[in-house]
Write a structure and sequence with these properties.
Length: 713
Amino acid sequence: MQQVLAACGAAFVSVEADGATWRIGNEKVQKTVAWRDGEGLRLSALEHRVTGRKWRPLPFDHEAAGDEFLFHWNESALSGRRASALMSARAEADERSVTLALALQVGESLNVTLYQRVHAGLAVIEQWLEVAPRRAGTLSRVAPLTLAVADLDAPTLHWVRGLQNHGAGMPARGPYPAYRLRSEPLGELHLHSGLRSTWHEIPWFVLQGAAGGEGLFVGLSYSGRWSATARNLGQGAALELFSDGYATPLHPGERWTSPVSFLGFFCGDLDDAAHAQHAYVRRAVVPPTPEDFPWVQYNTWFAHLVDIDETILRPEAELAARLGVEVFVIDAGWWEPSRRTSDNFTTGLGVWRPSAEKFPSGLPAFGDFVRSLGMKFGIWVEPERVDLRQEGTWRLDWLARHHDAIISPPWPPDTVSGWLCFGHPEVQAWAIDWISRLVSDVGADWLKWDSNWWGVCTCAHHGHSATDGEFHQVQGVHRVMSELRRRFPHLIIENCAGGGVRSDFAMLAHTHITWLHDASTPSRRVRFHLAGATHPFPPELCNTWVVDAEDEPLTDSTTPQHQIDAILRSRMFGAFGLSARLMHWTEDAFQAMQKAIAQYKRLRPLLKHGDFYHLLPQVDLQCPDLDLQGRWEAYAVIAADRSQGAVWVFRDPKGEPSRRLHLRGLDATRTYAVTDIDAARTVGRSGAALMEQGLAVDLGEHTSALLLLEAEP
């Protein structure tokens, strides 16, 4: 006999008659946990209700039996099984989710509340901790959720590598690493973030047995360092994912809230795992966006670096508007005393006063000019860094220090800059104040937030201790972003490099879109990034640009039309933008971009709400040449109701001219019109035939194709 304690649609929390067994779930997932005196809190069952598959916990006496959560208190490991008393259980519901909170006494000195949350309609369970000490101590290495399940034979672990490099660099030789999908038979694997949360790896891991079909994924929403251990247990697997890089002193009366971990369920292959992940990110993580988002962007950086002024940018804005661009973003270099040459954007950081030399009519007037062309206006900031040679409104005692030394980034080499401690409440208030004034003064619709360094502050007088500066740094950045979104509900915040090297799940909770990678050429590298990133991140969040490049010239009249089309299409299955000197483009390139932008706008709702498919394996790019070695690439997005879709196909010029592609996600019983927009040719095929027999694609001399699918009534 169960009693429902809270409900939201099909999502629920219930308790058994024994008063010590709880279930939380919805129509897709269900988790059961139980309290037993002498045994603590333990997982009883995980169920994927779509298929009926139940994941059993390991036996209680197994050395890796699930602990529900783990953390270190005064360097001793504590867990759910170490809890000595259950103090209370409560459940609540809001308009989108249900939450179960179990308050436990752990050890002799801690009260720990375990929170579990399920959103209506999502195959994901979130979990986090609140720690309240009764005696002073130090908290570190927190895993809000651990996973240890039986009946997972010969498990494979899938994950996506991080950026490896903050900018555009790559290894001298070997596999190209950034956003590379890894799939390995699980033995025992230890992974970590590196310097920043997505530097070496991205904290999202998929576990699947040898038979395929059912699987689980685990992720961590944290913008600081982390570590993970995954182990094959013979007939099962265990995974622990810790937030790292801090040791937080806590005193009686204080409450500390952990980052959120999440556990997801899927049936199928890695794309099916990504679909469940994308649904979670879209509906429960990222702030709401307009229906016509992501807007097509123009950004000034790769086109002009800091050598900008209104006489240069007015013609660019006019050309961008003619193309159909929707938001014009001024990147670094708009303030004084920013230099006019090189890529040195650090000079003047922290002053944040618009340059009268570059914008004699005023930056607000330029924003008005952009809006008069029918576009929105955006602007770049790097709030966490200041130029130490310039006098600003920031204070010297706000600078982050590591063991008494000012954290001073060595790059660019001809500047002297400092890193601000955003754990300091005064720094947060300062940032909120000047960014709010900037957004108001220029009427910004888009704020690009950059962060080109990373340091850990050890100052004990900045609102944190000497050992948890990193935790408070990222929390401070999140607080500033949250307040900006509260003050400016319609402001889009792009995360360029805050938190993770580019993005992480915690930053996605405070921003609307993420810049994918500075390495924006050649096109095959951009596609490689998108191929990997679109597993943990929905495609519409992955910001990519068309840029001027020597090896893919849009300024050369001899560049063939099919190459121009391939360059543009390589960015069309992410968030589409450009950063180029449009006045130098050929007329063919300009007209092709006009058509591509119009096509992107028609496909945007599909991209934003549909299911993304990797129809072929990610290519194996090798450094330094990133040679495709004759291989093909193919990506598709299919509407949730299977009524329409789009397929992007790319061929290495050295490869075969034709190939058969097996489509996915279609309705086998319906007939689809398949249109090649280059050949203006339409064929009809059943969904079953397109998936089982495949679609013959003949590109001839072309190197790309965009195919549109429409189901007949």
